[in-house]
Structures are given as C-alpha cells and as structure tokens.
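Deliverable D5.2: sample structural annotation.
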Amino acid sequence: MKISIDTRTIEPGDTFIPVVGPNFNGRDFIPEAIRKGARVLDVDLASYAKKYRKKLKCSVLAITGSAGKTTTKDMMYAMLSVAFNVVKTDENQNNEVGVPLTILKADVTTDILIVEMGMRGPGQIRELAQIARPTHAVITNVGLTHVELLGSQNAIARAKSEIFLAPLSWERKNRIAFLNATSPCYDLMVKRATAAQFQVLPFGGHDKPEQNLNSCFVVGRQFGLSDDQIREGLARYHPSAHRMVQTPLRGNGILMDDAYNANPDGVAYALQQLRRYPGRKIVVLGDMLELGDFAAEAHQQVVGQALDAGVDLMVTVGQHTKGMKYDGDVMWLSHFDSKTELTALLLDEIKPGDVILVKGSRGMKMEEIVESVKEKWA
C-alpha cells in the first residue's frame, strides 16, 4: 500500500496516516484525505511501522555516518537492484518520520530494504534502529558533524553505534556490521557492534570516494553479487537531488551540485571527488554550520584540502568562511558578503572546460547559485 502523510500528494487509493506533531495535527486533514479518495489509518506512525517491520522477511540494510549516507544509499540501491527487488529511503527522509515511511514501502516482494538514518543528538539513532531492526548496518565514517551538540568525536561514534541493538527473539542472529576501518573511533564501533552480536566486516580506502566504492563491494559480495554485477549496478547510479549531481556545461565544463548540506567530512569528500577531474577547478563554498568552537579551524582546514585537490579558484560566502586565509599564489581565494555579489563574479569568471563545485550548509541555500550557473552555462 502507498502511505501518505501529506494530503497535497494524495492520490485515490492511497492510505493517509495523520501524523501529529508539536506544531501541527494531521487529523485536521482527514476530511480532505477522504475527499481525495484515500483510506485513513489513524495510528501512531512509528508504532505502526515497528509492528509492520516484524512481519517483513527481507534483509534490512541501515546506513548512517557523519557524511556520505545518501550517496552510499543511492550507490548500494543501484548495485543491489541488479539481482534483487530493493526498496530505499527517498532522498534524505532519514528521521523519525522518514524511517517509518520507508519501512512501510516494503512488502512481501521486497528482498532488501535500505534505510538511511540521520541524527542530531544522542538517542536518535537508537530510536530509529528500534523501528527498523537492521539485519545489516553500515557506518560510512565518523567525523565532526554535530560536534557542537555532542562535544567530541568519541561521543559522535557512540551515538552512531546506537544502530547496533541486541537481537530480539524473532530476529535473525547472523547480522552484519560494515565499518570504515580508516575512520576515527573504529575500535569503539567494533566493540559496540560485537557486543550486540553483529559480525564486523571492514572496508577502507585512501580517500572518501574510494571508501564509498569499497563499502559497496564489501556489501555486494556479502549479498552474493559478483564483482561484474557490482560494477554493472554502480554504472546505473543516480544521485539524489543536490548530492554531487553533475550537469554538463557549454564548452565541456561540469557543474557539480553538492549544495544540499555541508560538514567537514562532506566537504573533504567533495574535494576528493573534484580532484579526479581535469580542467580548471572552481569551488563555491558557503558556511558549514553547527560546528561550535571548531568552526574557525574546520573552515581553515578546507584551504589545505582545496590546494591538495588542485583548486584554482575558491569563492566563499558566509560569516565563517570570511575568516579563511590563504597567502600563496597557487589558488585565488576570495570572499563575498552576499550570494548576489558572488554569483555576479562567478558568472563572469567561468570559462569553457571549467569544473565547478558548489557546496554549503542547508541554511546557506547554495542551490540558488547552482540555478544561476545552469541558467547561463548549462
């Protein structure tokens, strides 16, 4: 059955669950849902999904981490779909509403259910894991996302490791944890996974793109895919919106739209991807938010990472990026007080063959710059 919590998207035959929150009451929209031909199921979404999950016979692959969750989810979906009927989280619906909705999309025909799990603080991954009860769990990495709220990298690793729950009586016992062996706090995560009776399979790589790729091979092989099948599936990979989406530009240029969000690990990943491309490299960076006392250091670290990636021009906007310093002559670094000023210079500066990466935290709305570049150069 198709579940909806938004009457604006309801079609005849859908099932409407009226979600109740602190600032809204879905029950107010029950008459509208009925008028549109929906069946109403007035239940608590999380509780209903938890009961529904118990009936599912498919494997449940849960993915969390400080960066790369959505990309990894989309890559693994493309790969596993070569041989299995796979259901996955839509876009980044990885919270207390999105996870239950993802579970309710699966049915008796589903072989593998991929569930992305996000968090902002301790206890939240555990809450999502208690609903999804993963048979397989991937932690892409442990970085500094949410360090302002959690205080340390160890605390972040412990919060991510909440994905490992001791098995209930009805659950299968042969559960697998796929962990990034190059990530800080790896030993802590292994300890937590083993204590919850997960078998640990490591993956690694010299940079974040390679680690994502290697995680797919480890997972794919565990599900019985050959390396040829894995490569075939990865060739079909399509990113979610604003997640390293590539748009060809006039003159053989490329626009890399990674504007959905930004944190230190995500920016490092994007720059490592950018390094793989020939041509003049331009980075458009907005503030990375929610980094607390680490904000100044984190933004300054990007300068060194950009130099390593062979960036020729970096233009920035925001309060935190304003403090970034570079005195050399290899890269041009320039800050702007507004996106309007930045966009004007960028559009004049772009040349045929340029590779342009746009990234920033959600609150910076960097997709506005993406659309301006597309309008003139795509």
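Annotation notes: The first helix runs from residue 30 to 35. DSSP finds 14 helices and 17 strands in the chain.
The annotation will be released with the project's public dataset once the embargo ends.
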